[in-house]
Design a protein that fits this description.
single chain; about 110 residues; alpha+beta; 4-stranded antiparallel beta sheet; 4 helices; 4 strands
Length: about 110
């Protein structure tokens, strides 16, 4: 758990030089008042696929409610689980850390 969400993160033992001193968030699930959110940081970083490709591959007739890294949904049936699995599994730990270093000044 972190910040009130279920999180999958890179432990500080693996990558400690984060911009805020907290573990690097990879994926998180949060319950909001009227919906739930799935945060996909590899999608935000464009590591596996870009936002445009993600949008174009989203399985119809599901409605996609997408922010920068956040897919908002009411029930699990609203999600394109194979596409989400591709995003989550498509970014290795080393690649994700390399992206974090790139975005945060090469640390």
């Amino acid at each position: 758990m972190g910040a009130g969400m279920i999180v999958w993160q890179v432990p500080l033992e693996v990558y400690a030089d984060t911009y805020n001193g907290k573990p690097l968030l990879y994926v998180a699930v949060a319950a909001q008042k009227r919906y739930s959110s799935l945060y996909l940081m590899p999608l935000y970083a464009g590591r596996v696929m870009g936002e445009a490709e993600f949008r174009s591959r989203w399985a119809a007739p599901r409605r996609l409610d997408l922010g920068k890294s956040c897919v908002r949904f009411q029930t699990a049936a609203d999600l394109d689980l194979p596409l989400i699995a591709e995003v989550v599994s498509g970014c290795t730990l080393d690649a994700f850390i390399a992206t974090a270093r790139q975005y945060h000044g090469g640390r």
